[in-house]
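Summary of Year 1 activities. Much of the first year was spent building the evaluation harness for sequence design. The harness presents a backbone, in tokenized form, and records the residue chosen at every position. We chose the following record to illustrate the format because it has been used consistently in internal testing since the harness was completed.
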């Protein structure tokens, strides 16, 4: 992938850094405890393991990679090491770097790391710039106008037309800001080549988003919600 960063290594930890932060990031940046009171645990969405980091010179989100489901009972944060090219934090960093450089509404990646644990395991983390003055779609969808929802649909279509598949497109991974909509958390995301307009994964992406919205205490079949979803679909189809 273009615009990749060089890998730095300190003992069993490897990390990559955006060129704008070269010479600034150290391994301590990936440890929330090292930030002291500057790190605040993120409470909205996800399964934990993310912190807002605010200093005089930095506004960022630090996220550790955590497992979900049954496997989390065995190990919450350790993954099987299958080679550096398969490390999830590095893959997400490079995907975000590509998307951000291409002008897509995503957070700018700062750095990503992984640390080997024994012969076959590793743990990872990523730092991205914080999107200030934004809120998750889950927290504000009831206050968005149909025009704003059509704009969201158009934004999602832009990602899909470029072959960008978000692995977990839910209402907490879409941030709303005055200047538009931003997608976050691209763990396991990818850019698919030569994808068809009606490829099944695109419909699955939208269905995942719809299911996440259905869990937000909206009465099933509520007219207002159905109108909002219809507006989103219109934007996605380029209608209106």
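For this record, the design step produced the sequence shown next.
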């Amino acid at each position: 992938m273009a615009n990749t960063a060089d890998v730095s290594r300190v003992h069993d930890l490897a990390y990559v850094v955006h060129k704008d932060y070269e010479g600034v990031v150290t391994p301590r940046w990936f440890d929330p405890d090292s930030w002291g009171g500057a790190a605040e645990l993120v409470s909205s969405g996800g399964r934990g393991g993310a912190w807002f980091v605010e200093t005089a010179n930095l506004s960022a989100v630090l996220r550790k990679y955590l497992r979900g489901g049954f496997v989390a009972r065995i190990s919450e944060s350790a993954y099987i090491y299958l080679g550096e090219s398969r490390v999830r934090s590095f893959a997400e960093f490079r995907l975000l770097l590509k998307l951000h450089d291409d002008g897509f509404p995503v957070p700018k990646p700062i750095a990503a790391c992984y640390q080997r644990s024994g012969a076959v395991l590793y743990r990872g983390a990523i730092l991205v710039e914080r999107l200030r003055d934004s809120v998750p779609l889950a927290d504000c969808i009831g206050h968005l106008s149909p025009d704003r929802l059509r704009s969201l649909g158009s934004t999602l279509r832009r990602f899909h037309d470029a072959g960008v598949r978000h692995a977990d497109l839910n209402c907490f991974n879409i941030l709303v800001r005055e200047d538009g909509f931003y997608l976050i958390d691209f763990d396991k995301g990818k850019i698919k080549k030569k994808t068809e307009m009606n490829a099944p994964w695109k419909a699955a992406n939208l269905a995942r988003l719809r299911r996440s919205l259905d869990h937000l205490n909206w009465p099933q079949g509520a007219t207002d919600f159905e109108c909002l979803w219809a507006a989103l679909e219109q934007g996605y189809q380029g209608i209106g």
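The chain has two domains: 7-129, 135-237. Quantitative recovery figures across the full test set are reported in Table 2.
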